[in-house]
Amino acid sequence: MTQSFESRTLLRDVTLRDGLQLTGKMLPTARKLEIARRLLELGVPALEIGSMARPDLVPPMANTVEVISELTPEELDRCWVWVATPRHVEKAAAAGARHFQYCFSASDSHNQANIGRSTEDSLAAMPAAIELAQQVGGSIQLCIATSFTCPFEGRVPEQRVIDIANDPRAHGAVDVVVCDTLGQAVPAEVYSLVSRVRLETPQRGIVFHGHDTWGLGVANSLAAVAAGAMTVDGALGGLGGCPFAPGASGNTASEDLLFATRPDWLNPTTFGSFVELSEKTLAELGEANRSKAAQGARSNATAFEWVIGGGR
């Protein structure tokens, strides 16, 4: 199998958080646990397993605490939980979580719609969130939503993201998550911003979180990797989107990212199992499969080893 620099890329599957938050159905705790454990078993390095958002606002996340509490410490070591306040960190940590994605928006308008406070208020509370995470031996990421465009304010200046990443109140974060929340960025923009985060802010890991609204999810993710990101987010079948971001569609499909980056743990058989898990989950949710790679895996090109049943 031909390898390239992309094979070093880590996938974080966000199906159980970002992927589910716009669906009309809530998966029971037992089913979420099955999906999480199957993804880990297949080799996915990291998962996002839920959100501490208010269940009346994001109903599919209502059983996140139950999901956390049922996973083992070893499983939770590869799992992240979305948080937006110190209280969120406290509640998730009490259930057993140790990795927290502290998220707020670069644009005030979206932060008000999504979290109910200004960007400055979210940033001001981050030191307390970092301290709570460190008290339980955990880690926390700085997640900057609307890093490229905002549904209410339009284009977000690069410098705005750099200033947030450079703010001393965020320096306890182990990673910076750069988010194309609306999927409106193009590869040149992604490469430029991720390069600046890498070169002009404290040394931390960089995660790229992209959406495929305009069909550039994979291209943008590869541009982020070329600029220095080591982790990219994806969801099964391209599920997901932000309920407070008009114009946002699903995440970049995990299947597409895996087919493009070919991590060392992936082979045609594993990929086939991944596609089958995706298909089953999407059917349960009544959602369409937006993954081009999953569609390719079901094609009749039987001489190609990545087609399910092909060349094997």
UniProtKB/TrEMBL annotation:
Q: Which PANTHER family match?
A: HYDROXYMETHYLGLUTARYL-COA LYASE
Instruction: Output the superkingdom of the source species.
Output: Bacteria
Keyword line: Lyase, Metal-binding, Transferase
Family named by the database record: Belongs to the alpha-IPM synthase/homocitrate synthase family. Belongs to the HMG-CoA lyase family.
Q: Does the keyword Metal-binding apply?
A: yes
- The record places domain Pyruvate carboxyltransferase at 9-275
| Listed Pfam families | HMGL-like (PF00682)
In the record, what lineage is assigned to the organism producing the protein?
Answer: Bacteria, Bacillati, Actinomycetota, Actinomycetes, Mycobacteriales
Q: Tell me the Gene3D superfamilies matching this sequence.
A: Aldolase class I (3.20.20.70)
Q: Per its record, how is this protein called by name?
A: Hydroxymethylglutaryl-CoA lyase
User: Where in the sequence is the signal peptide annotated?
Assistant: none
